[in-house]
Amino acid sequence: MNRICQLFNIQYPIIQAGMVWCSGWELAAAVSNAGGLGIIGAGSMYPHILEEHLQKCLAATNKPFAVNLPLLYPAIEQHVETILKYKVPIVFTSAGNPKTWTTKLKEAGITVVHVVSSKKFALKAEAAGVDAIVAEGFEAGGHNGREETTTLCLIPMVADAVKIPVIAAGGIASGRAMLATMVLGAEAVQIGTRFVASQESSAHTNFKEKVVEIKEGDTQLAMKKLVSVRLVKNGFYQKVAAAEAQGASANELGKLLGFGRAKKGMFEGDMEDGELEIGQIAATVNEIKPAGDILQEIWQEYQEARKNV
Fold it and tell me: In angstroms, rounded to a whole number, what is the distance separating the alpha carbons of residues 46 and 77?
């Protein structure tokens, strides 16, 4: 049993990413029940909604699960209180300084993991006292590192630099990719895009079907001046690309983005004017399946790939 399986008390070193608008209680419970670690993505939830998802997740699984907590979330104190109230065993923090909340969470007996996109921030997270690190390459969907460091480069750099366990993320949707990252020094994988196209994902059906349709080159890293994010090349993306080509400032990009555009796309199903965040690896996803089946397929392919190397 590797260090991540021991740390989280899970069967397989496969973690479902806590993606905004796609990672509700149903997906988290399904992945945890299948032997991985499911994560509720709290970044898109009002405090009372997170509470509702925690109640439902606790009713749906007796296995460990986690909450993803973006540190830039405006009502973060309320989210932390809810996490403590429901005795969530594991918290993944992202998009901010891990020093801010790690001590408080760990004092409550919570295992803390921080998501980074560089070796520099991996070292800062380790110094802040986190238990493990997610090292995410720029192939990933959602918010991303400005440096554009790929997973293949990032994982060995981070694994060689820190003593705590490293979880690989970005561009992983298969057992073969999982094996590659393990060889590079990771002890588990975090998978987002593949689980968006699962039956239990809270993404809108239109978005799930769009993920299945995506071909190579259909996504692009954008809005680096504002918050670096990988987007599907839809109508909204074209407006962003045009603005960036004209040298738009962070403030101008913020006005273009507006409020609630990710919800409009991924949760409400507007495929043209919504913000659609997904990873490059979507080009290999070709069907919507139960999350438990996805996890088992990845694990079996990983075992086969190990034998064949």
Answer: 12
49 contacts 272 by C-beta, under 8 angstroms: no
**Residue range(s) defining the domain that contains residue 173:** 3-202+285-308
- Contact assessment for residue 169 and residue 190, using Cβ atoms and an 8 Å cutoff: yes
Single-letter amino acid, residue 108: A
Per DSSP, what are the bridge partners of residue 168?
135, 189
Write b or e for each residue in 209-234: b if 16 or more Cβ atoms lie within 10 A of its Cβ, otherwise e: ebbeebeeebbebbbebbbbbbbbbb
* pLDDT confidence band for 75 (50 / 70 / 90): confident
For the CA atoms of 179, 185, 189, 194, what is the dihedral angle to 10 degrees? -50
Q: Are residues 116 and 61 in the same domain?
A: yes
For residue 208, is it within any domain?
Answer: no
CB contact at 8 A, 165 and 138: no
d(CA 160, CA 178): 18
Same domain, 140 and 257: no
- pLDDT tens by residue, 100-144: 999 999 999 999 999 999 999 999 999 999 999 999 999 998 777
Residues 44 and 14 in one domain: yes
Interacting residues of 18 by C-beta distance below 8 A, sequence separation 6+: 39, 40, 41, 42, 43, 66, 67, 68, 92, 94
pLDDT at 1 over 70: no
Which one, of 190, 203, 193, lies nearest residue 141 by Cα? 193
Q: Name the DSSP letter for residue 74.
A: T
- Over residues 33-61, the mean pLDDT reads 96
117 residue type, one letter: S
Structure tokens at 16: 């479902």
Question: Under a CB-based contact definition with an 8 Å cutoff, are residues 119 and 157 in contact?
Answer: yes
Residue 180 makes CB contacts below 8 A (sequence gap 6+) with 152
